Amino acid sequence: MAFWNRRKSIDAMHQASDGPRLKATLSWPHLLALGVGAIVGTGILTLIGVGAGLAGPAVMISFALAGLVCACAALAYAELSTMMPQAGSAYAYSYAVLGELIAWIVGWSLILEYSLVVSAVAVGWSGYAVGFLTGLGIDLPTALTVGPHVAGGIVNLPAVFIIAVVTGLLLLGTRESATLNAILVVIKVAALIAFVAIALPAFDSANFTPFMPNGFGAPFVQTGVMAAAAIIFFAFYGFDAISTAAEETKKPERDLAIGIIGSMLICTALYLVVAAAAIGARPVESFAASPEPLALILREMGQGTAAQWIAASAVIALPTVLLAFLFGQSRIFLGMARDGLLPTRLARISSRGVPAVVTVFTAIVVAALAGVMRLDELASLANAGTLAAFAAVGVCLIVLRLRDPGRERKFRAPLFWLVGAITIVGCVVFFLSLQARTQFWFLVWNGAGLLVYFLWSARNARLAKHPDQAA
């Protein structure tokens, strides 16, 4: 078998790996909280305004379309993760179904996604935190609150600080960090529910006219419903972080499906209600350009105290997004290191049952990005990486059903052809709806990744040294 087409045995994924394994300490409530914590974040707090500016009130359709594609991807993830309960997520599934080269591209794309999301959210948290402290009369020097891309800036220390705090939580142990995450998720969801309760009494159906002022849009068109959906897609993903916790789940055959599908259902319903309440309360043009649209709507309604509470809850609860994605990033690195595609020393497990080396390594990388880089234009690259991974999962679902229909499946995605097709086509259309520079830098990133693969990883892969372990 050609080295780039080597496939990992699915049966081997159920066997213990060399050295200590991650501790199985999580159950479905932890996974549900992990998924909701990852999904509900800066996306709904800020992107509802961006999406409304592109699509008008028809941003409701954009939310529904992005939710549909992510729901189908979630069904595919649920089936594959229960079949292959191992750290690595879409990378691991691609390795077993599509071969080593595709797996490398997917893993490399996931590294891009998770790194940029963690860094971007840390910078976003820094902005909320600095503003919150300013409101309390505490002014931090500009040199220590923004990177060198801003005049007078040196390093964004608050962003580095919050990454360090979340890393410390992860090093304490998976169950401990998951329990705190669940508490913070409750705070975050309560804030959104409070927004809906306050905004709904001011609902005015006239704000939904004209409903679709910029049309439906199409690939390569940077306005309309499709363009908004491609951006709003950022607000939905995060449930894939649950699949990276497969090895640490007590009953993966049951709990993974509950966590993945349950978090998507909860968040899709919550997003649609929040979007309807926001548009009904105020005309789209009044909040489309705001970096904090929900808080702005409340202030315009004379609810200043509630607006401050929304901002405070963001400062308190946004670290749940950091925790989920930093958790997932370290497990992606762990899976690739175990397979020899990255240095194997990254696969060491601490006495507390966590991948301490790779967690600290990941934290250093994302903290460096958050501390000194401008991420406003690069953040959309996270979407490109996610779309590549989701499309690969859709392909894996269909291929594995056709290649190995008799294999035991603890969870079976219904109408697998339709689920897989919607996932693949939706991801391709969304990718084509991204900005051209985003598509270009995504290709540059993967071009660099292919160089790494052909120059180092292909020769050092576990299957290159132990071809008997290949499928």
The helix-and-strand class reads mainly alpha
Q: Gyration radius, to the nearest Å?
A: 22 Å
CATH class: Mainly Alpha
What kind of sheet is the major sheet? none
Please, what is the CATH homologous superfamily? Amino acid/polyamine transporter I
Architecture, CATH level 2?
Up-down Bundle
What is the multimeric organization of the chains shown?
single chain
Distance between the termini: 10 Å
> What characteristic shape results from the CA principal axes?
globular
Question: Which fold name is given in CATH as the topology?
Answer: Amino acid/polyamine transporter I
> On the 0-100 scale, what is the average pLDDT?
82
Low-confidence stretches: none
Element pattern in H and E: HHHHHHHHHHHHHHHHHHH
Number of strands: 0
Q: Supply the number of helical segments.
A: 19
Number of self-contained structural domains:
1
Helix fraction, binned, reads: 55-70%
Percent of sequence in beta strands: under 5%
